[in-house]
Write a structure and sequence with these properties.
Layout: E1 2-6, E2 12-16, E3 34-35, H1 43-47, E4 56-57, H2 72-78, H3 97-116, E5 134-137, H4 143-153, E6 159-162
Parallel strand pairs: 5-6
Antiparallel strand pairs: 1-2, 3-4
């Protein structure tokens, strides 16, 4: 156990000590109570002026809790598939193959039309890359500054619109 002592010469001395324990291992009596991580009163009680003592906690020996739910990368490494409440396994789905084939053929037609340069049935005009870009941002030194620096560095002719 270590502690710090302030001397009368404006210095701090670090004191190391070993306290024998009758219990062995972790001993709660060595650690004072400290403020808890939750509020002591509600907003209504505070507004009404009610005084409530601060909630405190006592340090205790850490207990290892076994993980039961696999999430994130551990799920990917073990191959556990995440299933939602509405999801069903592939084997139980059935009868939708005709609808899926129709969607696939529709998407393939749209992809072929986009590759050919068509708008695939929509009346949107083709995007014009010859126009001058406009950078609109507040007149402060904020996140817009980095974008301005990048555009200047790349010699892009742009309109800087400050609000």
């Amino acid at each position: 156990m270590r502690s710090v002592r302030a001397t009368n010469t404006d210095k701090l001395e670090v004191l190391s000590m070993c306290i024998p324990s009758k219990v062995g291992g972790f001993n709660q009596e060595y650690y004072p109570s400290f403020t808890a991580n939750e509020s002591s009163s509600t907003a209504e009680a505070w507004l009404s002026g009610t005084d409530v003592p601060v909630k405190t906690m006592q340090m205790s020996e850490g207990k290892k809790v076994a993980k039961t739910k696999k999430t994130g990368l551990s799920r990917l490494k073990t191959g556990v598939k995440k299933m939602g409440a509405k999801e069903t396994p592939e084997e139980t789905k059935g009868g939708d193959s005709a609808e899926l084939q129709a969607q696939i053929s529709k998407l393939q037609a749209e992809l072929n039309a986009a590759r050919a340069g068509g708008a695939s049935g929509s009346s949107d005009a083709a995007e014009d890359f010859n126009s001058k870009p406009v950078l609109g941002y507040w007149a402060i030194r904020g996140l817009g500054a980095q974008i301005r620096y990048m555009l200047h560095y790349l010699n892009v002719n742009f309109e800087d619109k400050m609000y």
